[in-house]
């Protein structure tokens, strides 16, 4: 049986409603504070808007270039060691705020990415390639290599532990 694409669902409707009611009440109680809060919220929204645009663009590009069969082969239940390797490497080379990756990872999971690989991706993000030279300068090469190896092994351990503890579907 072929898995159908899930329809679009606006998940933040209740939060949006609560925020709108809060701003409305605040506007009547203290209009100056409400105006300042709306300005700050607008500033934050404009700062994160490029990230959202990038994530939407990247997710669209990923959906266009990669079919679910290809994703499942590399990150699905039969991916084997290759899947663990790709999840580790993708986590290490990924940059930007964590929340920017949530939509992409959710999309990959809907196409068959294993939950253990999701854990490995997020746990291995703690290694930041641009910061490694500074870490070597402060702590030395041996410390940096050993700590990075421990982080990668810890990421793998967490992913494997999740897969052992979480019951499989089907």
Secondary structure category: mainly alpha
Gross morphology: globular
Record field, number of beta strands: 0
Helix percentage range = over 70%
Portion of residues in beta strands equals: under 5%
Main sheet specs: none
Overall mean pLDDT: 84
- Unreliable stretches covering 5 or more consecutive residues: none
- The gyration radius over C-alpha positions equals 21 Å
Structure overview:
- By secondary structure, the chain is an all-alpha fold.
- It has a domain at 66-165.
- Helix content is 74%, strand content 0%.
- It contains eight helices and no strands.
- The protein has helices at residues 13-29, 31-65, 68-75, 80-93, 102-110, 115-124, 132-139, 141-165.
- Helix 4 (80-93) packs parallel to helix 6 (115-124) and helix 6 (115-124) packs antiparallel against helix 8 (141-165).
- The longest helix has 35 residues, at 31-65.
- It is globular, with a radius of gyration of 21 Å.
- The mean pLDDT is 84.
